[in-house]
Amino acid sequence: MYNNTLKENAMHKNRVDILGTEFDNFTEKQFHKYLDYDLDTKANKFIVTANPEIVLSARKDSKFLKIINNADYVIPDGIGIIKGAKSLGTPLHERITGFDTLKYLIETADRKQLKVYLLGAKPEVIRATADKIKKDYPQVDLVGYHDGYFKDDAPIVDEIAEKKPNVILVALGYPKQEYFIEKYRQKADAIWIGVGGSFDVFSGTKKRAPKVFQKLSLEWFYRLITEPTRFGRMLAIPKYMKLIKQEKNRK
Ligand code: UDP
User: Fold this and answer.
1) Alpha-carbon distance 85 to 108, whole Å?
2) How far is the CA of 122 from the centre of ligand 1 (A)?
3) Most ligand 1 atoms within 8 A of CB, residue of 118, 125, 200, 203 to mutate
4) For the whole prediction, is pTM greater than 0.90?
5) What does the similarity note say (predicted)?
6) Which residues pair with 47 in a beta bridge?
Protein backbone atom coordinates (compact mmCIF):
# COMPACT_ATOMS: atom_id res chain seq x y z
CA MET A 1 0.00 0.00 0.00
CA TYR A 2 2.74 2.40 1.08
CA ASN A 3 4.82 1.53 -1.97
CA ASN A 4 1.85 2.02 -4.19
CA THR A 5 1.27 5.49 -2.80
CA LEU A 6 4.90 6.37 -3.40
CA LYS A 7 4.73 5.13 -6.95
CA GLU A 8 1.52 7.02 -7.61
CA ASN A 9 2.95 10.26 -6.31
CA ALA A 10 6.01 9.82 -8.46
CA MET A 11 3.84 9.24 -11.51
CA HIS A 12 1.63 12.24 -10.84
CA LYS A 13 4.71 14.45 -10.69
CA ASN A 14 5.54 13.42 -14.20
CA ARG A 15 2.27 14.56 -15.70
CA VAL A 16 2.05 17.01 -18.57
CA ASP A 17 -0.77 19.55 -18.59
CA ILE A 18 -2.52 20.00 -21.92
CA LEU A 19 -5.23 22.67 -21.64
CA GLY A 20 -6.13 21.45 -18.16
CA THR A 21 -5.98 17.67 -18.66
CA GLU A 22 -2.91 16.08 -17.09
CA PHE A 23 -1.32 13.31 -19.14
CA ASP A 24 1.13 10.70 -17.94
CA ASN A 25 4.45 10.93 -19.70
CA PHE A 26 5.83 7.44 -20.23
CA THR A 27 6.53 5.07 -23.07
CA GLU A 28 4.05 2.35 -23.92
CA LYS A 29 6.57 -0.22 -22.72
CA GLN A 30 6.86 1.46 -19.33
CA PHE A 31 3.07 1.74 -19.09
CA HIS A 32 2.74 -1.99 -19.77
CA LYS A 33 5.21 -2.67 -16.96
CA TYR A 34 3.05 -0.67 -14.55
CA LEU A 35 -0.01 -2.61 -15.70
CA ASP A 36 1.76 -5.96 -15.21
CA TYR A 37 2.66 -4.90 -11.68
CA ASP A 38 -0.90 -3.69 -10.99
CA LEU A 39 -2.34 -7.00 -12.16
CA ASP A 40 0.15 -9.01 -10.12
CA THR A 41 -0.65 -7.02 -6.97
CA LYS A 42 -4.43 -6.85 -7.65
CA ALA A 43 -4.32 -3.08 -7.46
CA ASN A 44 -7.40 -0.94 -8.03
CA LYS A 45 -6.59 1.30 -11.00
CA PHE A 46 -8.49 3.61 -13.32
CA ILE A 47 -7.18 4.36 -16.81
CA VAL A 48 -8.49 7.28 -18.87
CA THR A 49 -7.61 7.39 -22.56
CA ALA A 50 -7.99 11.01 -23.63
CA ASN A 51 -8.02 12.65 -27.06
CA PRO A 52 -8.54 16.32 -28.06
CA GLU A 53 -12.32 15.91 -27.95
CA ILE A 54 -12.14 14.73 -24.34
CA VAL A 55 -9.76 17.55 -23.39
CA LEU A 56 -12.24 20.10 -24.75
CA SER A 57 -15.17 18.40 -23.10
CA ALA A 58 -13.37 18.39 -19.75
CA ARG A 59 -12.82 22.17 -20.02
CA LYS A 60 -16.58 22.62 -20.03
CA ASP A 61 -17.37 20.06 -17.33
CA SER A 62 -15.34 20.60 -14.17
CA LYS A 63 -16.62 17.39 -12.59
CA PHE A 64 -15.42 15.39 -15.59
CA LEU A 65 -12.05 17.16 -15.48
CA LYS A 66 -11.65 16.31 -11.81
CA ILE A 67 -12.47 12.65 -12.47
CA ILE A 68 -9.86 12.51 -15.26
CA ASN A 69 -7.12 14.24 -13.31
CA ASN A 70 -7.73 11.98 -10.33
CA ALA A 71 -7.48 8.80 -12.42
CA ASP A 72 -4.38 6.65 -11.94
CA TYR A 73 -3.36 6.82 -15.58
CA VAL A 74 -4.26 9.36 -18.25
CA ILE A 75 -2.87 8.28 -21.59
CA PRO A 76 -2.55 10.27 -24.83
CA ASP A 77 -4.92 8.65 -27.30
CA GLY A 78 -4.58 10.61 -30.50
CA ILE A 79 -1.90 12.39 -32.46
CA GLY A 80 -3.48 15.75 -31.55
CA ILE A 81 -2.35 15.32 -27.96
CA ILE A 82 1.23 14.51 -29.00
CA LYS A 83 1.30 17.52 -31.34
CA GLY A 84 -0.22 19.79 -28.70
CA ALA A 85 2.30 18.69 -26.07
CA LYS A 86 5.22 19.33 -28.43
CA SER A 87 3.88 22.69 -29.45
CA LEU A 88 3.59 23.75 -25.79
CA GLY A 89 7.24 22.79 -25.20
CA THR A 90 6.35 19.83 -22.95
CA PRO A 91 6.62 16.85 -25.31
CA LEU A 92 5.17 13.45 -24.40
CA HIS A 93 7.09 10.25 -25.16
CA GLU A 94 4.56 8.70 -27.50
CA ARG A 95 0.97 8.09 -28.34
CA ILE A 96 -0.69 5.21 -26.49
CA THR A 97 -4.11 4.30 -27.80
CA GLY A 98 -7.08 2.94 -25.89
CA PHE A 99 -7.47 0.23 -28.50
CA ASP A 100 -3.89 -1.02 -28.13
CA THR A 101 -4.23 -0.88 -24.34
CA LEU A 102 -7.41 -2.95 -24.52
CA LYS A 103 -5.54 -5.51 -26.62
CA TYR A 104 -2.62 -5.57 -24.22
CA LEU A 105 -4.92 -6.12 -21.26
CA ILE A 106 -6.73 -8.98 -22.99
CA GLU A 107 -3.44 -10.59 -24.11
CA THR A 108 -2.06 -10.27 -20.58
CA ALA A 109 -5.25 -11.70 -19.09
CA ASP A 110 -4.83 -14.62 -21.49
CA ARG A 111 -1.21 -15.12 -20.49
CA LYS A 112 -1.91 -14.88 -16.76
CA GLN A 113 -5.34 -16.59 -16.89
CA LEU A 114 -7.13 -13.61 -15.36
CA LYS A 115 -10.79 -12.69 -15.00
CA VAL A 116 -12.24 -10.14 -17.42
CA TYR A 117 -15.61 -8.35 -17.45
CA LEU A 118 -16.94 -6.42 -20.45
CA LEU A 119 -19.48 -3.62 -20.29
CA GLY A 120 -20.84 -1.50 -23.13
CA ALA A 121 -21.67 -1.26 -26.84
CA LYS A 122 -24.76 -2.63 -28.59
CA PRO A 123 -25.99 -6.14 -27.70
CA GLU A 124 -24.75 -7.70 -30.96
CA VAL A 125 -21.37 -5.96 -30.62
CA ILE A 126 -20.78 -7.09 -27.05
CA ARG A 127 -21.76 -10.66 -28.00
CA ALA A 128 -19.31 -10.61 -30.91
CA THR A 129 -16.61 -9.20 -28.62
CA ALA A 130 -17.21 -11.96 -26.06
CA ASP A 131 -17.15 -14.62 -28.81
CA LYS A 132 -13.87 -13.30 -30.18
CA ILE A 133 -12.26 -13.37 -26.74
CA LYS A 134 -13.47 -16.94 -26.12
CA LYS A 135 -12.13 -18.06 -29.48
CA ASP A 136 -8.83 -16.17 -29.72
CA TYR A 137 -7.90 -15.85 -26.03
CA PRO A 138 -9.03 -19.17 -24.54
CA GLN A 139 -7.17 -18.72 -21.25
CA VAL A 140 -9.10 -15.56 -20.41
CA ASP A 141 -11.67 -16.22 -17.72
CA LEU A 142 -14.53 -14.14 -19.13
CA VAL A 143 -16.67 -13.81 -16.01
CA GLY A 144 -19.44 -11.73 -17.56
CA TYR A 145 -20.53 -9.12 -20.05
CA HIS A 146 -23.38 -6.71 -20.57
CA ASP A 147 -24.36 -4.31 -23.36
CA GLY A 148 -24.22 -0.57 -22.76
CA TYR A 149 -27.92 0.20 -23.04
CA PHE A 150 -29.26 -0.41 -19.53
CA LYS A 151 -31.45 1.62 -17.19
CA ASP A 152 -30.47 0.14 -13.86
CA ASP A 153 -26.81 0.00 -12.81
CA ALA A 154 -27.47 -2.22 -9.79
CA PRO A 155 -27.55 -5.72 -11.36
CA ILE A 156 -24.37 -4.99 -13.32
CA VAL A 157 -22.54 -3.56 -10.35
CA ASP A 158 -23.67 -6.50 -8.18
CA GLU A 159 -22.36 -8.95 -10.78
CA ILE A 160 -19.01 -7.16 -10.90
CA ALA A 161 -18.76 -7.17 -7.08
CA GLU A 162 -19.59 -10.86 -7.00
CA LYS A 163 -17.34 -12.04 -9.85
CA LYS A 164 -14.33 -9.94 -8.81
CA PRO A 165 -12.77 -9.46 -12.26
CA ASN A 166 -9.12 -8.42 -12.61
CA VAL A 167 -9.83 -6.33 -15.69
CA ILE A 168 -13.03 -4.37 -16.40
CA LEU A 169 -13.39 -2.86 -19.87
CA VAL A 170 -16.08 -0.17 -20.04
CA ALA A 171 -17.25 0.93 -23.51
CA LEU A 172 -20.04 3.42 -22.85
CA GLY A 173 -18.42 6.36 -24.66
CA TYR A 174 -17.12 9.38 -22.75
CA PRO A 175 -17.96 10.90 -20.29
CA LYS A 176 -20.47 8.20 -19.33
CA GLN A 177 -17.82 5.48 -18.94
CA GLU A 178 -15.59 7.66 -16.72
CA TYR A 179 -18.53 8.69 -14.50
CA PHE A 180 -19.49 5.02 -14.21
CA ILE A 181 -15.98 3.88 -13.29
CA GLU A 182 -15.48 6.68 -10.78
CA LYS A 183 -18.79 5.79 -9.09
CA TYR A 184 -18.24 2.05 -8.84
CA ARG A 185 -14.52 1.35 -8.90
CA GLN A 186 -14.43 0.45 -5.21
CA LYS A 187 -16.71 -2.53 -5.93
CA ALA A 188 -13.78 -4.53 -7.31
CA ASP A 189 -10.00 -4.25 -7.16
CA ALA A 190 -9.44 -4.35 -10.87
CA ILE A 191 -7.93 -2.37 -13.69
CA TRP A 192 -10.86 -0.29 -14.92
CA ILE A 193 -10.58 1.39 -18.30
CA GLY A 194 -12.96 3.40 -20.48
CA VAL A 195 -12.47 2.19 -24.06
CA GLY A 196 -15.04 4.22 -26.06
CA GLY A 197 -15.93 2.58 -29.36
CA SER A 198 -13.16 -0.05 -29.15
CA PHE A 199 -15.49 -3.07 -28.94
CA ASP A 200 -16.97 -2.08 -32.30
CA VAL A 201 -13.50 -2.33 -33.83
CA PHE A 202 -12.23 -5.29 -31.76
CA SER A 203 -15.25 -7.43 -32.69
CA GLY A 204 -14.81 -6.60 -36.38
CA THR A 205 -18.16 -4.76 -36.52
CA LYS A 206 -16.29 -1.60 -37.54
CA LYS A 207 -12.97 -1.59 -39.36
CA ARG A 208 -9.93 0.10 -37.86
CA ALA A 209 -8.19 2.46 -40.25
CA PRO A 210 -5.82 0.66 -42.66
CA LYS A 211 -2.12 0.59 -41.65
CA VAL A 212 -1.17 3.37 -44.05
CA PHE A 213 -3.65 5.75 -42.33
CA GLN A 214 -2.33 4.64 -38.94
CA LYS A 215 1.27 5.25 -39.99
CA LEU A 216 0.48 8.74 -41.26
CA SER A 217 -1.55 9.47 -38.10
CA LEU A 218 -4.62 9.96 -40.24
CA GLU A 219 -6.97 7.61 -38.43
CA TRP A 220 -9.28 10.55 -37.69
CA PHE A 221 -9.47 11.23 -41.45
CA TYR A 222 -10.34 7.60 -42.18
CA ARG A 223 -13.10 7.78 -39.57
CA LEU A 224 -14.40 10.98 -41.14
CA ILE A 225 -14.70 9.49 -44.62
CA THR A 226 -16.21 6.23 -43.41
CA GLU A 227 -18.53 7.82 -40.84
CA PRO A 228 -19.44 11.28 -42.16
CA THR A 229 -22.01 11.74 -39.37
CA ARG A 230 -19.05 12.28 -37.04
CA PHE A 231 -18.22 15.53 -38.83
CA GLY A 232 -19.67 17.68 -36.01
CA ARG A 233 -17.52 15.89 -33.44
CA MET A 234 -14.42 16.30 -35.62
CA LEU A 235 -14.73 20.07 -35.44
CA ALA A 236 -13.22 19.64 -31.99
CA ILE A 237 -9.79 19.13 -33.59
CA PRO A 238 -9.33 22.59 -35.21
CA LYS A 239 -10.85 24.19 -32.11
CA TYR A 240 -8.35 22.31 -29.94
CA MET A 241 -5.41 23.31 -32.17
CA LYS A 242 -6.50 26.95 -31.94
CA LEU A 243 -6.54 26.77 -28.14
CA ILE A 244 -3.08 25.16 -28.16
CA LYS A 245 -1.79 28.05 -30.27
CA GLN A 246 -3.29 30.60 -27.88
CA GLU A 247 -1.81 28.78 -24.89
CA LYS A 248 1.60 28.67 -26.59
CA ASN A 249 1.51 32.42 -27.21
CA ARG A 250 0.42 33.05 -23.63
CA LYS A 251 3.38 31.02 -22.36
N1 UDP B 1 -22.51 3.27 -25.97
C2 UDP B 1 -23.11 2.49 -25.00
N3 UDP B 1 -24.12 3.03 -24.26
C4 UDP B 1 -24.53 4.30 -24.41
C5 UDP B 1 -23.88 5.11 -25.38
C6 UDP B 1 -22.87 4.56 -26.14
O7 UDP B 1 -22.77 1.33 -24.83
O8 UDP B 1 -25.44 4.72 -23.70
C9 UDP B 1 -21.42 2.67 -26.77
C10 UDP B 1 -21.61 2.69 -28.27
O11 UDP B 1 -22.39 1.58 -28.69
C12 UDP B 1 -20.17 2.61 -28.74
C13 UDP B 1 -19.41 3.37 -27.65
O14 UDP B 1 -20.27 3.42 -26.53
O15 UDP B 1 -19.74 1.28 -28.76
C16 UDP B 1 -19.03 4.80 -28.01
O17 UDP B 1 -18.48 4.84 -29.25
P18 UDP B 1 -17.85 6.14 -29.89
O19 UDP B 1 -17.28 5.74 -31.19
O20 UDP B 1 -18.83 7.28 -29.85
O21 UDP B 1 -16.73 6.46 -28.81
P22 UDP B 1 -15.29 7.10 -28.90
O23 UDP B 1 -14.34 5.96 -29.14
O24 UDP B 1 -15.29 8.13 -29.97
O25 UDP B 1 -15.18 7.67 -27.52
Assistant:
1) 30
2) 9
3) 200
4) yes
5) Belongs to the glycosyltransferase 26 family. TagA/TarA subfamily.
6) 73, 193
